[in-house]
Amino acid sequence: MSEEAPEIQINVKGPSELKLQIAITTDKTVLELKQAIAAKSDVEADRQRLIYSGRVLKDDDALSVYKIQSGHTIHMVKGVSRSTGGASGSSGSSTTPQQLPTMQTGQNVHDPLTQLNGHMGFGAMAGLNPFGEMGLNPNDPNMMQTMLNSPQFLQQMSAMMSNPAVVDQIIASNPQLASMGPQVRQAFQDEQFRNMISNPESLQSMLRMASMLRGAGLGPAAPFGAAPPTFPAPGNPTSPSQNAGTTDPATAGSQQPPINPFNMFGAPAPGSPGAAGAAGANPFGNQAGMLEQMLGLPGLGGFGGFGAMPPPPADTRPPEERFQVQLQAS
Amino acid sequence: MAKVPRNFRLLEELEKGEKGIGDGSCSYGLEDGDDILMSNWNGTIIGPGHTVHENRIYSLKITCGPNYPDERPDVQFISRVNLPFVNQTNGTVDPSKLAVLANWGRHLSIENVLVEIRKEMASFNNRKLPQPPEGSTF
């Protein structure tokens, strides 16, 4: 075998006077050669384009295909990385608020959701207590309102929702969403929908609505009463929570059990009565019906993960007290 | 002065091509290393910078007939390219529209052809010509 794959010395000439000598056997593939070049230069393998004798070398071919001999020269040209053509790379990363610091989440740093857990994410995924920094008490029932009025927060939400990578991640990481099949993706890709969820104003009114209904005692963590019992509702202590925030003492103290960030989008099964009922009360019409299923307005319960208001446990209080939040707000 | 026979001349060119010329902006080699007639050649041109061709790699086919280098080679683009001297249906280079081929002499080589074509890409008239998507072929 070694007889058929002699080691050869290849000269590699690259951009800006780069000259390398690589010793490699001819049974190696072009890709392996590229990796060898990458190890000796600062050009990643997938950005290299190799040219020898008037031909562009193909990654999968063995070097012997090109009959390269010792002392011959291969030219290397820097191209655009092919991987940037992918869905998550191009459009996603450009809109991602990349400047966000990433914190402790224990998730892959490349995971776009991780950024949302950064403190600049305003704990959009709940759990953390960034609000302390904002001078907000998570137990303050008005915090939700305050947040709704915070342009920063809305901007953050809007940035998050307009990032396709995040949306994809959300779909992929939630089996319920994923099992809803193509409509989810379709709807997420629907421009109207995207506009809606990425528009601060509509987000705001959605969140308002949620908080209103919640305050109105329409059910604790799930403002639209949408979650079927089997659904791991946010705030359900038995739900397997992946939330990074579980470790955050502030959350633990807030009586609101940790919220699984993905449950924010945890939709009830399509067509579940709860969701349908919710649609009735809903100024956004059709689109939003879909939206609710997807954002699941338990989801807004998920937003409840903002740790804002511990849900009214039992409505034994007089209405004045029960609607105190609304009365204050208006 | 004695005339270098075709095959010696092409062997010389082959060797030069394999060693690599210049910065690699033009490269060429035998299509099939076992072709003892050395008729069919591949060439690549890396699009010159600051033009629409920047960072593109154009592949060409060069055919040296039995009377090369007394007769000019046939040149044909494999990669789609929009240039005034390139036939837009099959990629062949019109020798009458490219000086190096129109004024062919035996002192010229495959390398000269590629280098001249590359210069044409960077010329004032051609550098901004709209180009077909990268990677498409004739």
From TrEMBL, chain A:
- Which Pfam families does the record cross-reference, listed alphabetically? ubiquitin
An annotated GO BP: ubiquitin-dependent protein catabolic process
Q: Which SUPFAM superfamilies match?
A: Ubiquitin-like (SSF54236)
* Positions of transmembrane segments: none
| MF GO annotations | polyubiquitin modification-dependent protein binding
Give start-end positions of Low complexity composition bias.
80-96
* Domain Ubiquitin-like residue range list: 8-77
Task: List, alphabetically, the InterPro entries matched.
Answer: STI1_HS-bd, Ubiquilin, Ubiquitin-like_dom, Ubiquitin-like_domsf
Supply the SMART domains for this chain. Answer: STI1, UBQ
Specify the superkingdom.
Eukaryota
Polar residues compositional bias, start-end: 97-108, 238-257
Instruction: Cite the residue spans of the region called Disordered.
Output: 80-111, 221-258, 302-330
Gene Ontology terms, cellular component aspect? cytosol
Q: What is this protein called?
A: Ubiquitin-like domain-containing protein
Automatic annotation (TrEMBL), chain B:
Q: Which Pfam families match?
A: UQ_con
Q: What UniProt keywords are attached to this protein's entry?
A: Ubl conjugation pathway
Name the Gene Ontology biological process terms.
DNA damage tolerance
**Family annotation (SMART domains):** UBCc
List each copy of the UBC core domain by range.
5-138
Keyword RNA-binding attributed: no
Name the chain's protein.
UBC core domain-containing protein
